[in-house]
Amino acid sequence: MASRSERWILGGAIAFPTIPVKALFAIAAGAVLLIFIGIRNAWDIVTFIAIKGIGKPPS
After folding, report:
1. What number of CA atoms fall less than 13 Å from residue 33's CA on the CB side?
2. Would the CA dihedral through 40, 6, 15, 27 be positive or negative?
3. How many domains does one find in the chain?
């Protein structure tokens, strides 16, 4: 299933031939959403490691 940001990018790509200005805004919005999702996921990982610790590597 496509995420919200992927839908914005796909919608912008489909609309590009008919309304290029609005389509480019949709593509940019999808890209910004992907950036924020990546930052949020990275922050979650950092918080988890800070609380739980790295631990021993599997042997």
Report:
1. 13
2. positive
3. 1
9-16 LR contacts (CB < 8 Å, sep 24+): none
d(CA 59, CA 56): 9
Q: Please state whether 14 falls in left (phi above 0), alpha (psi between -120 and 50) or beta.
A: alpha
The pLDDT of residue 1 is: 56
pTM over 0.90: no
Any domain includes 57: no
Residue 59 lies in a domain: no
Within-domain flag for 19: yes
Which pLDDT tens digit goes with each residue over 42-59? 888 888 888 887 776 666
